[in-house]
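Extended Data, panel c. Modelled sequence:
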Amino acid sequence: MKFLATKRKYLDSAVRRLEGGLTTLAKAAEDTKVLSADLAIKNEEIAEKKVIVEALIADITQKSEIASKKQKEATEKKAYLAVKSIEINEKKEEANKDMEAAAPALLAAKAALQNVKAAQITEIKALANPPEMIKTVCQITFQFYLKDGKNDDWGNVKLRMLGDMKLLDNLKSYDITTCTRDQAARAKKII
């Protein structure tokens, strides 16, 4: 009987262990069910966040492409402007040389203008067909005096420039640096 009692104890112990294992398995199954539910919720949240992240990545990619294009355009524009800046500086130097060369003639013209009287302008205005030299000087002056001096026939010059009562004062105070390239080109054509 001792053998049976020992076996019984052994079997009771095995049953308790199995019952403990079953309890543990049941608890683990219950915990697994709760964790699976939590995991499903987390997976839904992850899926939502994944969509948001993918949209952000697409937006960032698009904005990066736009930024790259703008940077490329800016680089091209910078290079273009650098070339234009060089050209402008060259033309500026050329214009400065032309101004230096023209300075003595400009000073002589300003000095000669001091000797012109209003009566002399009235006399020139009265001429129906002035000598070619006077007409040429008046037409050139007309180009610089009026910004829109495209029509430089003698009648228009008489009306619009020689008819100006402040012509002499305006010519004496004229700032040649306000002359446009278009005005200078029209004046050169007359010469």
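The helical segments are 2-113, 118-126, 132-145, 154-162, 167-172, 181-190. This feature is highlighted in the accompanying rendering.
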